[in-house]
Write a structure and sequence with these properties.
alpha/beta, binds calcium ion, elongated, Arc Repressor Mutant, subunit A, about 230 residues
């Protein structure tokens, strides 16, 4: 079987070398390095990789631009992209995700974290199985809705939505179990921790409030009569 090819776009040779070493250690990933944005685009055009790990502050063409260009081109738009950067402000994170990245890791990071994220992104790319859902992906990207589970950020049609903690956890659980029916009792158990004074009616109330904040994406939370709720793609 062919090894997975990852392109690491990083202008600091030490960091690029460390990443290459960490990812190649398992034996099933082969890493190429591009030290500038234009070189990355050239490399992708010549031989599209299975994954791009992208720094933001890069010579010639910056990482946001590289990401945007790759997402515009039909032949490269599905390549998973993980942005890796020292920029950690919320606006950078949002711009990064809106420019089409699948995940976002801030420096300093551990190699263990990076390899875990890489594996998660590659698993998702190979077909969204139940196992991938169990691995709790850090990002959901739908037509109108983008949820960053790590940053606890929800964007609806490009605008930040303000959810309460409970609403966020409810959304997270539904998204992680997407396309499957989740009963009210299971939601009570997993989201509420089964507080005895909470009735299943509470679940309905919270789902109602959550839907009201999700705009066009409200329809993605379906009521399954007699059973519970289901989040659909
Ligand atoms: Ca850099």
């Amino acid at each position: 079987m062919a090894r997975t090819r990852a392109l690491v776009v990083e202008d600091e040779p030490d960091i690029a070398g460390l990443i290459k070493h960490a990812l190649e250690r398992g034996g099933d990933i082969q890493v190429e390095i591009a030290a500038a944005g234009d070189l990355a685009l050239k490399s992708v055009a010549e031989a599209p990789p299975d994954l791009v790990i992208l720094d933001l502050n890069l010579p010639v063409v910056n990482g946001f631009e590289v990401c945007r260009i790759l997402r515009m081109r039909p032949d490269t738009q599905r390549i998973p992209i993980i942005i890796l950067t020292a920029r950690s402000s919320e606006s950078d994170r949002v711009v990064g995700l809106e420019s089409g990245a699948d995940d976002y890791i801030t420096k300093p990071f551990s190699m263990r974290e990076l390899t875990a994220r890489v594996q998660a992104v590659l698993r998702r790319g190979s077909g969204g199985s139940a196992a991938a859902a169990a691995a709790a992906p850090m990002l959901y990207r739908g037509q109108n809705l983008v949820v960053d589970f790590e940053a606890i950020s929800v964007m609806v049609d490009g605008r930040s939505a303000r959810l309460t903690r409970r609403e966020f956890e409810l959304l997270q659980f539904l998204v992680q179990n997407r396309n499957r029916v989740v009963s009210r009792n299971r939601l009570l158990e997993r989201v509420w921790g089964y507080e005895r004074d909470v009735e299943t009616r509470s679940v309905d109330v919270h789902v109602g409030r959550l839907r009201a904040k999700l705009g066009a994406s409200a329809r993605q939370i379906e009521t399954v009569v007699g059973l519970g709720y289901r989040f659909v793609d």
